[in-house]
Design a protein that fits this description.
two-stranded antiparallel sheet; transcription; mainly alpha; single chain; HTH_MarR-typ
Length: 190
């Protein structure tokens, strides 16, 4: 099915201008990655994510001294204070061991508090401290400005459509495989 979709996309674009292609010469190394790439979705998503993550998290590291996973914990709690580590993992898609180390660091720095649930001693709730909230607020506008710059090329209707489509994919992602079993794939192709 992926090959069919990729072929269909390629054929649909053959002989016509593609969105944005009028500003991108065919000899640009980006051109084949956009228009001849069988993994078109993953390329676009990764490329755009890096356009946000590299400058924004680089600045956060300079300004706050926090690595991306550490700030992800703070941002998760900023959006939904009073979460467990498992809930932060689920809502960010980072590995649990990575976020566990991040939680330990931001707790040591006084950016979050941990509270044991009296009714379930295994449940630990994470909350932002005032210092943690101030850290997030200090870089929030930088993040929003960079995101606005990235979305500037889209009309308001296109932004809404993009948001709706990406939201649909994020929600569906819970049913996607977490690991790719190459041995199982080899067995089915033999």
């Amino acid at each position: 099915m992926d090959r069919l979709l990729s072929t269909a996309l390629h054929e649909a674009r053959a002989g016509r201008e593609t969105p944005g292609s009028q500003h991108l010469p065919q000899d640009d190394p980006l051109f084949p990655k956009l228009w001849d790439n069988p993994c078109w979705l993953s390329f676009r998503l990764n490329f755009l994510a890096l356009q946000f993550n590299n400058p924004v998290y680089g600045r956060i590291q300079q300004q706050l001294g926090l690595l991306r996973p550490e700030f992800v914990v703070l941002w998760s709690l900023y959006l939904g204070n009073g979460l467990t580590l498992t809930e932060v993992v689920r809502s960010s898609n980072f590995p649990k061991n990575t976020l566990s180390r991040a939680v330990n660091k931001v707790a040591t720095l006084g950016l979050i508090d941990r509270e044991i649930d009296p009714s379930d001693q295994r449940r630990v709730t994470l909350t932002l401290t005032e210092k943690g909230r101030a850290a997030v607020v200090s870089v929030k506008e930088l993040m929003l400005e960079h995101e606005r710059a990235m979305l500037e090329c889209l009309s308001p209707a296109e932004r809404l459509t993009l948001s709706d489509l990406l939201t649909k994919m994020v929600v569906a992602s819970g049913s996607w495989p977490r690991d790719l079993d190459l041995n199982a794939e080899a067995a089915t192709t033999d």
